[in-house]
Amino acid sequence: MKRFLSIFLAAAMLCAAALPVRAQEPEQAELKTEDVSGYPSITLAGGSHALYLDENGPNQTVAYDPLNVPGMVKEYIPAIVKAILKLDYDSVVDSIVEALQRVFGDIAMDENGESIKDGITCDRQTFRESNIQSDRIFFGFDWRLDPMENAEKLHDFVAHVREKRGGIEKFNFVGTSGSGGVMLAYMKLYGYDDIASLVMNISLHNGLAMFGALATGNVSLGAEALGKIKIDFGAMGLDWQLQPWLRLLYESGLLSVLSKTTKSGIRPWLRPTYERGIIPMLFMMPGYWSFVPQEDYEAAKQYIFREDPEKYAGLIEKLDRYHYEVAEQADELLLEANKRFKVAVRAGYGKPSWPLGDDTGVQGDGMVEAFRAGLGASCAPLNEPFLFWYKQKIDDGHDHISPDRYIDASTCLLPEQTWFTYNLSHKWEISYSGWYEWWLAAENATVFGSEAYPQFSEMTEPGIFVPREAKPQSKALSLLKAGGLGMLKIWRWVLQLPLFWVKWWYQSYV
Q1: Residue 35: enclosing H or E segment and its boundaries?
Q2: Are residues 493 and 347 in the same domain?
């Protein structure tokens, strides 16, 4: 009995683990409280939106449209699955490369990070007079380009709007998703004088685990993410109801074993797929490199460019400039911004990332992890809240633990100005039921400044946000649940032990 209790308590302690990011409270500037709603807002587009050839001209054609991708991918799934079952590695590579070329071929870039086809743009409504005269101005850009280059284009656009509207002094900026890095580059290149306020909205400027895994070749079937994600196969025209089965396989540990086995199984065709498809189609685009986490950047360069680094010298120069002059200084840039004008951060949680890598099964909005978008939030594992004895890591006199006990925002770079939304899908961006209008005008623009817009909210249905609430749970039930989950973790670990021994034997004697 004592042995069982020891195992049970050890399992419970495993579930109390979080993602510690910041060891001490960052220096906070005096909060900016002025009403800036009188300035127009410029909302930057996210990433991977549609790109066009001869945009707005008589021969306009779509070069890339994310809405078309699921249908394109669907065509190649049967061939890829059939080739995998036959262990026909050459056919697997051929099918994947063909699919990548079908999706990205028209927007491919060369070894210097320059577009192979001329005339590809994404202005959409950017330069239309109705957009320029609006209070909510939209800025579209070619997301394939280096964020520094897009920051220069944003600076030119700001000057264009000023000229058209008679010299507006400042603007409110919203850097959404992939454009968070563009806003950081803008501040690095041009300072802060143009900015009245800034929202870093579900920003990817800290990267995301999926791209870290993809860029370093550590591709695997993310068992935890796959077991907890909700995949919309209907978007691909597939009537598959796999979620209950995937969850069962994950909890039993079989999905973890499958993940490890698959990771070894794909080795024969992984590098050829990179050299023929992934590298030329994806990693010639500087914009995609801005999604690679800083901690993975050097390893990614070694993996992607290892065949001939000199061949890619022009591209590497661009990548180094952004990563070491902007991304590495992101916190300093934002702290300095916070001394000069209103700054807010928005992030989502409750959803894992796409299951492409071992580290994707953590709190996020379905794409970017909450601890990255939230600038240092400490997060409990998915569906495993902090236990009742957990205390927030930094005691600043305010309660920064979410009602459901999944998020500890005390470790965020700006804990008083960082909002989290449970069940938020990454695609919803800035649609926060009036939050933005309140925040622009608010004199107390913090997470405690309005009962209608607390630090933790929930998206109950698309576009509808309410304060997050959680049902009270007894300490005994909380501990029992945590112990059960912890024992499942131990079981999954034990189930994988034979794979470690097989791998050790193979590497040692074969």
Answers
A1: none
A2: no
Task: Give the β-pairing of 456-461 and 418-422.
Answer: parallel
- Answer whether residue 168 is part of any domain: yes
Domain count, the chain: 2
Find residue 348's DSSP bridge partners. 421
User: pLDDT tens digits, the chain, 510 residues: what are they?
Assistant: 334 334 333 433 333 333 444 444 445 556 777 899 999 999 999 878 899 998 888 888 999 998 888 888 888 888 888 877 777 878 888 888 999 999 999 999 999 999 999 989 988 789 999 999 999 999 999 999 999 999 999 999 999 999 999 879 999 999 999 999 999 999 999 999 999 999 999 999 999 999 999 999 988 877 777 777 766 555 545 455 667 777 777 777 777 777 777 777 777 788 899 999 999 999 999 999 999 999 999 999 999 999 888 999 999 999 999 999 999 999 999 999 999 999 999 999 998 888 888 887 889 998 899 999 999 999 998 888 898 888 999 998 999 999 999 999 999 999 999 999 998 888 765 556 789 999 999 988 999 999 999 999 998 887 788 899 877 776 677 777 767 667 766 766 666 666 555 555 545 544
| Maximal C-alpha separation, the chain | 79
CB 488 within 8 A of CB 8: no
The closest of 329, 343, 217 to 282, measured between CA atoms, is 217
Same domain, 176 and 232: no
Question: What are residue 459's phi and psi, to 5 degrees?
Answer: -90, 105
**Which residue, among 132, 136, 141, 192, has the nearest Cα to 162 in the 3D structure?**
132
Residues contacting 262, CB < 8 A, separation 6+: 220, 221
Tell me, yes or no, whether 208 and 242 share the same domain.
no
Dihedral sign (CA 200, 206, 209, 210): positive
Contact 291, 204 (CB under 8 A): yes
* Dihedral angle over CA of 29, 33, 34, 36, nearest 10: 90
The answer to whether 16 touches 479, Cβ cutoff 8 Å, is no
pTM here is: 0.86
Write out the residue range of the structural domain in which residue 152 sits: 24-219+266-470
For residue 386 the two structure tokens come to 């902090």
Q: Are 442 and 36 in contact (CB under 8 A)?
A: no
Look up residue 190 and give its two tokens: 């041009």
**Residue of 234, 261, 238, 258 whose CA lies nearest to 248:** 258
C-alpha distance from residue 446 to each of 379, 385, 454 (Å): 21, 25, 9
Q: Which residues of 308-325 are buried (b: 16+ CB within 10 A; e: fewer)?
A: eeeebeebbebbebbbee
